[in-house]
Amino acid sequence: MRDEIESLPDTESGRLRRCVLALAAYGARDDEIGTAVGLDPVALVERHGGDLEQGRRMLGANIRLELLRSATGDGRPWSLSAAVYALRHFLGTPSAPRGHRG
Hints:
5 helices
């Protein structure tokens, strides 16, 4: 993400895009981002919809990465619930009903 943000031009529009992208990746709502950059939510989506979507994809990827790190330990105590969630949602293993024996 850092490379993506740093690659934007060092102009007023580039700084605005960096702000929108970073806030969206942090998880801020459209109205919060609009307030920060001085745009109403409708104008924000019209002008920076791509940056909002990209920031939200980055947020999702970072959440998945942290869940996988928690599931595997990665230098800290591992979490059984994170491991179960990762196995079910990221690796596509189907959830069998409780008590069902195949």
